[in-house]
Amino acid sequence: MRVIAGKAKGHRLKPPEGLDVRPTSDRVKESIFNIIQLDVLDAIIVDLFSGTGNLGIEALSRGASKAYFVDKSPNSIKIIKENLLKTKLQDHSEILTSDAIAAIKKLMDGNIKVDIVFMDPPYCKDLIEPVLIEIEQSKILKHNSIIVVEHDKKDFIQEEIGQIICYRRKNFGNTSISFYHLREDTE
Questions:
Q1: Domain extents for the chain?
Q2: Which of 61, 114, 142, 145 has a CB 3.0–4.6 Å from the CB of 8, allowing a cystine?
Q3: Is the pTM of this model over 0.90?
Q4: What CATH superfamily classification does 26-182 receive?
Q5: Above 60 in pLDDT, residue 2?
Q6: Which residues contact 69 (CB under 8 A, 6 or more apart)?
């Protein structure tokens, strides 16, 4: 697991300890960033279920202005901090030790508007739709924000959740990446 591009390119990230965290593979991460590359520069990022901080760190390395890393595991928080220090990207980040829904509420209370949300929850745990509902209801998205969800190919996720719609899905073996945005007539 390494940073693929940008100012921290080539840095190896500390891997997770144990089997609780399943980091996004470099191949999947590269595909995600090929798709969203024009949206990353100066973006405000939220990395939900951060694990190692892999996706948020990649975004910061590629020019995102700020990343919020969210995870409730103390072990993951420790790894995220170490990876941010190693890549020298800690000054552009904030770490929230919290579950995803509480973190979204905190961002909303802080009047934070985000450009890209990464979600990589544990597979097959029915966590995606409740979090997407909370994101949609919280109004933390800008009109052109993107939500990138990594999930098991067997996970069934609605194509539309409120004003959030899936506009692209890509499969990599047992892993799927679903891309969501707000319905175009929504502000």
A1: 26-182
A2: 61
A3: yes
A4: Vaccinia Virus protein VP39 (3.40.50.150)
A5: yes
A6: 47, 50, 53, 56, 80, 84, 93, 94, 95, 96
